[in-house]
Design goal:
The structure holds two protein chains of two kinds.
Chain A (H helix, E strand, L loop, with lengths): L4 H8 L1 H9 L4 H24 L4 H32 L6 H32 L5 H27 L13 H29 L19 H13 L2
Chain B lengths: L2 H13 L11 H11 L3 H8 L7 E2 L6 E2 L3 H4 L1 H31 L5 H33 L1 H29 L4 E6 L2 E7 L7 H27 L3 H27 L4 H21 L1
Antiparallel strand pairs in B: 1-2, 3-4
Classes of the chains: A mainly alpha, B mainly alpha.
């Protein structure tokens, strides 16, 4: 088993890959391959952003970044599965997990695509540019996350799964679309809060800490970074 | 007939191969024929009711590793296991985080908080991995015959590759001494066979494929529905079918001269015998 096989197919032969998920073909293999490969890609990016601070931070971020994405997915998956089931979805739990992992893999591979850019800035900025490096990475993470979410919205849209859904009434279809959109908002919200809980990923100047114990949330954190950048 | 037996009969019908040979013509014909003889992963999944690949059967978390995987692809196994351990650590992370969060108010020094955090994560990770290994060991015992048949499927595919190579060589080289290669056997000089492989060889390959398909179906029946009357009758049918294939293969083998193809016929017979032994073990 090549652990990168599913990611390769996701990039080169997406329609066939999605069709296989829809037909429940080799789902366990896809889950294993997507989970392991996305873990590796996220860990590589985590290693790069953590290197801004120290070796300890690099190792810590290489574990925490995959945890951020994959745990968010595992935390939010039951909500989507149960709500979809309530509104007539025929997709199984494994199918849901494979679709979500495919989206996570898209994000992971895009982050790996940005890795050389991040690495370039890592080598050319100093500790004083912490806020700039932080905001640059927030922008990269937001952009890649947006692509992942758009992919998920495309492949999980109701009406694309089985022929039985073609006969679904308009009201149920609307409800299912609303569920998916609301879930994507929830996914973003849980992800940003888990990111805030697991921080630091970059490590602000000073001693290495595994976790920060001060309160707050993701939004207040970004606002503070913007203020610091504006104030020089 | 009970639903599983009926389902298996449909699967068997879908996977049986007409015992035809490649047309006397193009290389493309011959390649297509050899491709059609292969049993691919999705077909195996349909036949044995479990996902399979070169590393594991069932799933990576609650399945079983294939026999001899450490010998065949040690690097792949080690990398996969290390990643699974890392994933188990990642899943246990919230436990450690919960502990650090709760102790943060009383212990502001992060360095001191790291020890219980790491210990909690390690305990969570060990528990998850222990459960996984226990399940995998149980499955390995339960699926012993299936794992044996899957090994025979690999040997069959090796024989197919060797025959395809031999067929290609015979198309390229004019009659005369040529070099041939079989997996596990060093290069050797053999007399060139006629430009086409013997019809008996193709029939033997089709029979071997049929034996493997029958073996996989019988094993599935044995795992899922051995005790039921319909299942038992179907199982006996499949065994009889296997015995018939074995008898035909033995007859083919006895009629062959000592040639490269005769050796491959012998391999085909060995595979069918191993399948028979696996399901009656």
């Amino acid at each position: 088993m090549n652990i990168f096989e599913s990611t390769q197919r996701l990039l080169s032969d997406r329609p066939a890959f999605i069709a296989e998920i829809r037909d429940r073909k080799q789902l366990n293999q896809k889950i294993a391959s997507l989970l392991l490969s996305s873990f590796v890609f996220f860990a590589i990016y985590g290693l790069i952003i953590g290197s801004f601070h120290s070796v300890q931070q690099a190792i810590s971020s290489a574990i925490k970044l995959p945890a951020l994405y994959l745990l968010t997915l595992m935390i939010c998956m039951p909500t989507l599965y149960i709500f979809n089931g309530l509104f007539g979805s025929k997709r199984g739990l494994s199918q849901h997990f494979t679709y979500l992992l495919s989206a996570a893999s898209i994000i992971a591979i895009l982050l790996c695509g940005f890795a050389p850019v991040t690495f370039f800035f890592l080598t050319s900025v100093t500790e004083a540019d912490y806020s700039f490096f932080l905001l640059l990475n927030v922008a990269i993470l937001a952009l890649t996350g947006l692509f992942g979410v758009l992919f998920l919205y495309q492949v999980m849209q109701p009406g694309t799964e089985t022929s039985a859904e073609d006969t679904m009434d308009e009201k149920t279809l609307k409800a299912r679309k609303l569920i998916l959109r609301s879930w994507l908002v929830l996914y973003g919200f849980v992800g940003s809060q888990l990111g805030w809980t697991l921080r630091p990923f970059f490590g602000s100047p000073g001693e290495f800490v595994m976790f920060r114990s001060d309160g707050g949330n993701f939004i207040t954190g970004v606002m503070m970074a913007l203020e610091r950048l504006g104030g020089g | 007939m009970d639903p599983l037996a009926e389902n298996l009969q449909n699967v068997a019908a879908a996977h049986s191969l007409p015992p035809t040979q490649p047309g006397s013509g193009s290389e493309q014909d011959s390649h297509t024929f050899f491709q059609s003889l292969k049993i691919d992963w999705s077909e195996l999944e349909q036949l044995c009711g479990l996902e399979t690949n070169d590393l594991w059967v069932g799933s990576l978390w609650a399945g079983a590793y294939r026999l001899g995987v450490l010998r065949r692809s040690p690097l792949s196994l080690i990398v996969t296991e290390l990643l699974v351990i890392a994933l188990a650590g990642m899943v246990s992370l919230p436990l450690g985080l919960l502990l650090v969060r709760n102790s943060a108010s009383t212990d502001p020094e992060a360095a001191r908080a790291a020890i219980p955090f790491v210990m909690t994560v390690a305990i969570g990770m060990s528990a998850l991995l222990l459960m996984r290994y226990r399940r995998m060991t149980q499955n390995r015992k339960r699926w012993r015959s299936l794992l044996g048949i899957l090994d025979e499927v690999d040997s069959y595919h090796d024989s197919l590759k060797a025959l395809e190579l031999l067929d290609q060589l015979q198309e390229i080289h004019p009659p005369g001494p040529i070099s041939s290669f079989r997996p596990g056997i060093e290069f050797e000089e053999v007399q060139a066979a006629p430009s086409m492989l013997e019809p008996a060889t193709f029939e033997a390959l089709a029979l071997t494929r049929d034996s493997l398909v029958t073996g996989l179906l019988a094993d599935r029946l044995l795992r899922q529905q051995q005790s039921q009357i319909g299942g038992r009758a179907r199982y006996i049918d499949l065994l009889e079918h296997l015995d018939h294939n074995l008898a035909t293969l033995t007859a083919f083998e006895a009629s062959q001269q000592v040639t490269e193809e005769a050796q491959l016929l012998q391999d085909a017979l060995k595979i069918s015998l191993a399948v028979r032994r696996s399901i009656t073990r």
